[in-house]
Design goal:
- The complex is a heterodimer of chains A (about 260) and B (about 230).
- Chain A has one domain.
- Helix content of chain A is about 80%, strand content about 5%.
- With about 230 residues, chain B is of the alpha/beta class.
- Chain B is built from 8 helices and 10 strands.
- Classes of the chains: A mainly alpha (about 260), B alpha/beta (about 230).
């Protein structure tokens, strides 16, 4: 499986390089502007945060598109003629997309966080910006608190499970669409419908398990921004277990279709 | 080594591509799959390779049903280009070396030298003749038990075809099976032992090429015309 992951990463390196390149350009622009044009620097920082989310979606979307392409094009023979179990092939593909998307997203967010600190340092002594920098300093201090840190880790676990479920469901939907309507009109639309339907079902089940989803709280006050989690932890953990089980189920279902139903 | 196709069938909604195909391929022979377009040759090969799932019957290699495990002993080379676009010839060799224990890098390198091709060449920039040679090189460098070549001579010139023919004879495994599908009947007659004629998805005739010449005193091409010319 590791060899499969190696070649999968090489196949997708184009988009990784593009996203990393965009990140470097945005960071360079921010560092150049932060000392001279504060409004432009702020705009660049906002773009960087948005770009982080866009990067995650683009990497995920590219991964699903590559999976579809392997099923449709002859290059898929390179993958599916190898003596590797279909479950390892699918898991390898999903892991590469998952890891690369997470790494790129984290790189964007880390740089955005560091840029906030730079902003706070540069403008700490400058009125009338001292109020803004004081607020930012308070945010940073709040983010460093133990409770908030635990809540942030909880939020991170939630995001990772959600991304895993979405990825596995998307792969299964592509495989099922290819099984039912291989090469025919409507295949992509069918895959899209199946994906949406399954995700709605999973979301519904998750909300039934975890109950009230107002567990994550974000408060903006004069003292600054505070983030915390106040829901029932055990129900959240149950919903994570369900998410991982659902994603794993989709993964094995995809492998089954690859081995027994899909014709290349 | 025994490759068995038993009641092998592939049905689609509007068509039966392979219909109740029964044949045991014996090792040490080179088989030709012959028939007009749409007779089921490619579908049959893909079922043997494990890329297409039969709707009836099965394929067994040494008693084991064809699946991901048997792919370690089977190599399938399609007509079309299938290497990843980013790959150089060297990358293709690395890929095969990583996934197939039977891949002999020395043989591949030697073949590349004979073909005057370099490992740094990008596969997407190769001509059809060069690509056909690389496909054959990577196929024959695998010491697989079952070698399936789907229309290996399509779109390549006479000199390249002659060279590929010689390679096939030189590297055909003594304890394995080579199956070639081709429309160039006169060309492949020189290298094969057994001709398998297919018609509308069914096995029409299996004939030893030497016996055909000795007993019926006709060439393979003439036999082909005899079987299929009624349809014209």
């Amino acid at each position: 499986m590791l060899k499969m992951m190696k070649y999968e990463a090489r196949k997708n390196r184009g988009i990784y390089l593009i996203m990393a390149g965009i990140l470097l350009v945005l960071e360079a622009a921010y560092l150049l502007l932060v000392h001279s044009h504060i409004s432009m620097a702020a705009v660049v920082a906002v773009i960087m945060v948005i770009a982080g989310y866009v990067t995650m979606f683009m990497v995920l979307g590219n991964g699903v598109a590559m999976f579809k392409r392997d099923l449709r094009d002859k290059t898929g023979y390179m993958v599916y003629m190898t003596p590797v179990p279909p479950s390892f092939i699918v898991l390898g593909k999903i892991l590469v997309v998952f890891i690369s998307g997470t790494v790129l997203f984290s790189a964007y967010m880390l740089l955005a966080y560091l840029d906030i600190r730079i902003f706070a340092d540069v403008y700490s002594a400058q009125a009338p910006l001292s109020a803004a920098s004081a607020y930012l300093s308070q945010i940073i201090k709040n983010l460093s608190g133990t409770d908030t840190l635990i809540s942030l880790l909880h939020l991170l676990a939630c995001i990772l499970v959600v991304v895993f479920v979405i990825l596995c469901t998307a792969y299964f939907s592509v495989a099922l669409g290819s099984t039912v309507l291989r090469g025919k009109k409507g295949e992509k639309f069918l895959s899209f419908l199946i994906c949406i339907a399954l995700l709605v079902v999973f979301m519904r089940i998750t909300s039934l398990i975890s109950g009230d989803m107002s567990g994550f709280n974000m408060d903006f006050t004069d003292a600054g921004f505070r983030f915390s989690f106040s829901g029932h932890l055990y129900r959240e953990i149950l919903s994570y277990i369900f998410g991982i089980a659902a994603g794993t189920g989709m993964l094995f279902a995809t492998s089954y279709l690859l081995e027994n139903k899909i014709d290349l | 080594m025994e490759l068995v196709c038993r009641n092998l069938t592939k049905r689609y909604l509007t068509k039966t591509a392979v219909d109740n195909f029964n044949l045991t391929f014996n090792d040490g022979h080179i088989y030709a799959l012959l028939g007009p377009n749409g007779s089921g040759k490619s579908t049959l090969m893909k079922m043997i390779a494990g890329l297409t799932n039969p709707t009836g019957g099965y394929v067994e290699l040494n008693g084991e049903k064809v699946g991901w495990k048997t792919k370690a002993d089977i190599v399938y080379t399609p007509t079309e280009p299938f290497f990843f676009g980013y790959m150089t010839i060297g990358d293709v060799a690395d890929y095969y070396g990583d996934f197939f224990k039977d891949f002999d890098r020395r043989v591949f390198t030697e073949l590349l030298r004979e073909m005057e091709l370099g490992e740094s060449m990008k596969t997407r920039k190769l001509s059809s003749g060069m690509l056909a040679k690389v496909k054959i090189a990577v196929t024959m460098a695998r010491r697989a038990k079952v070698i399936l070549l789907d229309e290996p001579f399509n779109g390549i010139d006479l000199i390249a075809r002659d060279y590929i023919s010689k390679l096939l004879i030189r590297y055909a495994p003594e304890d394995g099976v080579v199956v070639i599908s081709s429309h160039m009947v006169e060309e492949i007659e020189k290298m094969i032992d057994v001709a398998v004629f297919m018609k509308q998805g069914r096995l029409e005739l299996v004939s030893d090429v030497e016996k055909l010449r000795a007993e019926e005193n006709i060439s393979l091409a003439d036999k082909y015309r005899q079987l299929y010319s009624k349809e014209a």
